[in-house]
Write a structure and sequence with these properties.
The complex is a heterodimer of chains A (143) and B (280). With 143 residues, chain A is of the alpha+beta class. In chain B, the strands form 2 sheets. In chain B, strands 6-5-4-2-11-10-9-8-7 form a 9-stranded antiparallel β-sheet, with no helix packed on it. Chain B contains 4 helices and 11 strands. The chains are: A alpha+beta (143), B alpha+beta (280). Chains A and B meet through helix 1, helix 2, helix 3, strand 5 and strand 6 of A and strand 1, helix 1, strand 3, helix 3 and strand 10 of B.
Chain lengths: 143, 280
């Protein structure tokens, strides 16, 4: 490998900024990566907003009781570039399945990573778990 | 120097093996330009104009480079795993003085709940350029370089061969002036406040921060971006990091209004008020 190529490769390997490359706020502080959840329900509200998008899901349990869940995901800028279209990809009344992680406060709220639509198509809706919490290691040596 | 290894390593290795030829020079202009040659202005200066992405070393369009999991998991591949752990591993630490290292560690242990980005504030330099979810656009003229950041809709106007202005107070983005050293654009930034983070979670600085950025377009697709952060109030020595900006042809910047629906701050306040366990 020539020196310029090696230098460029070295630059890439000196990659940085576990949290800065990600999203607006700390998903890790609000949602628990150790509490994954899968929900299927009917979309009742879509908030196509920044800094984060949200939608509400009417989920029925095995006894037919309904509960409203609120799902949080990417900025809409990222959703556009991930293949989503406002008022087209997901609409009120659609039945979808989400995979994500529950809120730490125990409310009916979750960070949605992936949405599966009725036709089986899947799209990412939010970043990986723990996004924004600083990665696995701090930027300083731990005494 | 803080070093992170991108995982999966295979992708990085593959990219490295595909690295292009050494950059051409102004003397090459008499020859047909190679497909990956550095674009140059009429006077032979490297032209940095274009839309770029930090935080992602892959070549290609936005769609190509962010396939699979993508940066922050924004990929288009539905077969990609839904629950990856962190994709980056820190292998070195920033040279903080002990009292400021404790501040960094405190924010880390709080999982970044105190991130100024959560308040929709400007991220500062260099952090703003490294938010891989959002592109940046560089517009170069003979007398100034303008950097447009989609994230937070922030702009930087960098006059060339100019003195720092003296009529502004401390700011989030600082005051930038630039000059060319050979094929490298060198940008000197001072005049910061002490409210931002330099890179990742908790990387505090003071208003004595002095940032030197070096932009070298090494071929058509890549700018080597080397940043030295000097802040004697918080560091024991200057901190230098190296990364890249990658060309994303065809990508256009969008509006981004962070204050539109920033309900997450209410959620944080409720977590703190209710005593919800969230720390590491």
């Amino acid at each position: 490998m020539s020196r310029p190529v090696f230098g460029v490769c070295l630059a890439v390997l000196m990659w940085l900024f576990a949290s800065s490359a990600r999203a607006h706020h700390s998903f890790g502080a609000e949602f628990d990566a150790n509490k994954p959840i899968t929900l299927t329900g009917v979309v009742t509200k879509v908030e196509w907003t920044n800094p984060h998008s949200h939608f509400s899901l009417d989920v029925k349990d095995e006894k037919g009781r309904s509960a409203t869940w609120v799902l949080t995901g990417y900025t809409v800028n990222a959703l556009y570039r991930t293949g989503w279209k406002k008022d087209v990809t997901m609409k009120v009344g659609d039945t979808v399945t989400i995979f994500g992680w529950r809120a730490r406060d125990g409310s009916n709220s979750a960070h949605a990573r992936e949405v599966t639509f009725a036709d089986g198509k899947k799209l990412f809706y939010g970043p990986p778990s723990g996004t924004g919490e600083g990665g696995p290691t701090p930027a300083v040596k731990v005494p | 120097m803080r070093r992170l290894l991108l995982v999966p390593a295979l992708a990085t290795t593959t990219w490295c093996l595909a690295c292009g030829s050494p950059p051409s020079t102004a003397n090459d202009q008499s020859k047909p330009a190679a497909a990956n040659a550095v674009p140059r202005t009429a006077d032979g200066t490297p032209d940095l104009t274009g839309v770029w992405q930090g935080g992602n070393g892959r070549r290609g369009t936005w769609e190509e480079a962010n396939s699979g999991l993508g940066v922050g998991g924004t990929g288009l591949d539905p077969s990609a795993p839904a629950n990856p752990s962190s994709q980056q591993v820190i292998t070195d630490a920033a040279p903080y003085k002990p009292e400021h290292a404790a501040r960094v560690l405190d924010s880390f242990n709080k999982r970044g709940i105190d991130d100024p980005a959560g308040l929709c504030l400007p991220l500062g330099v260099p952090r703003l350029a490294l938010v891989g979810l959002f592109p940046i656009q560089i517009v170069q003229t003979p007398t100034q370089v303008v950097i447009l950041h989609e994230y937070m809709s922030i702009f930087r106007v960098i006059p060339l061969n100019a003195e720092h202005r003296t009529d502004v107070g401390p700011t989030y983005m600082g005051d930038s002036v630039g000059h060319w050293e050979g094929d490298t654009l060198v940008v000197d930034v001072v005049g910061f406040n002490d409210k931002g983070w330099l890179t990742g979670t908790g990387t505090v600085h003071s208003d004595a921060l002095h940032v030197t950025e070096r932009y070298t377009r090494v071929d058509k697709d890549q700018i080597d971006y080397v940043i030295t952060m000097d802040d004697p109030n918080v560091f024991t020595e200057p901190w230098t990091v190296k990364t890249t900006l990658m060309l994303r042809e065809g990508t256009r910047l969008q509006e981004y209004v962070c204050a539109e629906n920033n309900v997450e701050m209410e959620h944080y306040a409720k977590i703190l008020k209710d005593g919800v366990a969230y720390k590491r």
